[in-house]
Amino acid sequence: MANPIQYQFDEAHLRRSAPNKFSPEDLKVEEMIVNVGPQHPSTHGVLRLEVITDGEIIVDVVPHLGYLHRCFEKHAENLPYNQIIPFVDRMDYLASMNSEHAFAMGVEQMLGIKDQVPPRVEFIRVLVAELNRLASHFVAIGTYAMDIGAYTPFLWLMRDREHIMRLLEWTCGARMLYNYIWVGGLFYDLPVGFEKRCSEFVRYLKPKLAELEKLVMENKIFVERTANVGVLPLDLAINAGISGPMLRGSGLKLDLRKVDAYSVYPELEFDVPVGEGLMGTIGDCWDRTHVRVRECYESLKIIEQCLDRLQSDLARTKEFDPRALVPKKIRPKKQDLYVRAENPRGELGFYFRADGKSDVPFRCKARSSCFVNLSIIGAMAKGCMIADLIAILGSIDIVLGEVDR
Amino acid sequence: MSLDEIKEILINKFGEDILLESEVESTPPMLTVAASRIAEVCMELHTNEHCYFDYLACLTGLDHGPEQAKMEVVYHLYSIPYNFQLALNIVFPRTAEDTELFEVPTVSHIWRTADWHEREAYDLVGIHFSGHPDPRRILLPADWEGHPLQKDYKEQDYYHGIKVIY
Fold first, then answer.
1. pLDDT confidence of residue B134
2. Is A317 an interface residue toward B (CB < 8 Å)?
3. Which class for B137: exposed (0-12), middle (13-18), buried (19 or more C-beta within 10 A)?
4. B79-106 burial by CB neighbour count: b if 16+ within 10 A, else e?
5. A357 exposed, middle or buried (CB, 10 Å; 0-12, 13-18, 19+)?
6. pLDDT range class, residue A323, cuts 50, 70, 90
């Protein structure tokens, strides 16, 4: 071995790589800096918040990101399109199916095979994506309740999420990072008997969701902790590019599944829940959580319709091959494309620049929903108590894998 | 609303030479505008009631490497009331040792989305934005060397005594 010593300590290595934005000299006499994270249960991952406080009152919040940065975009510039999909999984690891779906849609659109994808493939994609959306919302609501101080909902939701994880594991062998949706098709058809088991799960889940609403949403302590806290006005939300349940919680009925009508969503019936200020002001933490809970019902509706179609006119046949359209070589012609899709956390966008000469994208940018959603925390938390900061951060529902990419 | 109407709005306000020839075919439709006037163009698109682009979805920096010596920024705008998507594109010379630093005017005073996205474009691609309120790195550590998404990026050997390439 040429160099057996991997690391040699030196005093100079102890310099700070992520210095604070504010230094003690910038502050007023009564203000102080409180550091939250990067290792803290309420930051939902490795996120550091530099909080300037005046006693209990928050003056400013500066998020420091990048602890989970893997430079997805650099990876993407060095890999063929189909090999990027596993990396897409690892961005938002709670909703991998949704991200894969968006990515595959974008590449198919570039190749011009978007309209040729068989309907059975599209319905399976929507089915697994909505299952994943449920699982993702369960984590969001469960951990949020835990932030607020309720432990039971977390355990109940993790129990129900486990059924989804097992179903998705059955389709492709992985619990979280699936690589199931491929460009032009799917890894495999659904396993035999999947539709039946999935219908059983839907039947099982419906009363559980009603239970959840009683347990969390109508709980007096939960309402007191979240109503009128962290109000995000709609004009600020639009200006800051907020999307997903957070934007809808502020009262705008904007769901890309409806607006863009991508995939087979126009054939499915579902509503778009928005925040109505039932417990306080429109756009408070309670409204955002309420939108997520209502979306679980809507996802169940979509899942039921998909299962109906997959068992009737689009039922499995011997000849059906979900990989029939998967291209051997993906080389789109020279073009730019921005594709966006509604993920559990909001608008996930991919921007591709293809140069027409190679199998790898010239540039692939991921527009992360929670990266943008998190950027508003400073404006939302100003003037709140420190305990409310935790409630606000939880209601944004960040996944650090996607924030840092 | 159509692309021609947007072109007309811009030409009426800023004159013929604001729009440049675009090289690439794009979805959603893309307009290439003069780089130094991007902030004024964005302000017009944001406030004009005939287009009203109130939502900045995405901001991307691109580097073409040292041979072509140019960089790009692509803005993806969305008008919620008109349900219309538009991409704006600016091309400008890449900053090398012998050229003067080109600074892109910031649009963070128009859309708050641009604040973090411009920091990211600076961090990863090395594009400088003039007038940005908080021009720090965002994803990489403050003492990292270089901008990884530049085509000729070379990793540093050691970072705080830790070997970078293993």
1. 87
2. no
3. middle
4. beeeebbbbbbbbbebbeeeeeebbbbb
5. exposed
6. confident
Nearest to B161 among A7, A241, A336 (CB): A7
Number of Cβ within 10 Å of residue A200's Cβ equals 11
Residues of chain A in contact with residue B113, where contact means CB-CB under 8 angstroms, are 239-241, 372, 375
Which is it for the CA torsion A294, A295, A300, A301, positive or negative? positive
DSSP A43: G
Least confident of A59-68, A281-290, A306-315, A316-325: A316-325
Q: How far apart are CA A348 and CA A257, in angstroms?
A: 12
The helix/strand/coil state of A168 is helix
φ, ψ of residue A23 to 5 degrees: the values are -110, 160
Contact A73 B124 (CB under 8 A): yes
Q: Which of B27, B53, B75 to mutate to test the interface with A (most CBs of A within 10 A)?
A: B27
Sort strands B55-63 and B70-79 into parallel, antiparallel or unpaired: antiparallel
* Disruptive mutation site among B113, B144, B157 for chain A (greatest number of A CBs within 10 Å): B113
Distance from CA of B68 to the nearest CA of A (A): 14
Encode pLDDT of B30-66 as tens digits.
888 988 888 989 998 898 888 889 999 999 999 988 8
In three-state secondary structure terms, B99 is: coil
Q: What is the pTM of this model?
A: 0.91
Of B110, B112, B100, B42, which is closest to residue B74 (Cα–Cα)? B42
Cα nearest neighbour of B145 on chain A:
A17
Of the pLDDT bands very low, low, confident and very high (cuts 50, 70, 90), residue B100 is: confident
DSSP symbol at A138: H
What is the nearest CA distance from B154 to chain A, expressed in angstroms? Answer: 12
What local confidence, expressed as pLDDT, does residue A24 receive?
83
Alpha carbon distance A295, B74 (integer Å): 33
**CB hemisphere CA count around B155 (13 angstroms):** 10
In chain A, the residue whose alpha carbon lies closest to the alpha carbon of B143 is A17
What's the pLDDT tens digit per position in A79-103?
Answer: 999 899 999 999 989 999 999 999 9
In angstroms, the CA B41 to CA A396 distance is 32
The CB-side HSE value for A250 (13 A sphere, CA atoms) comes to 22
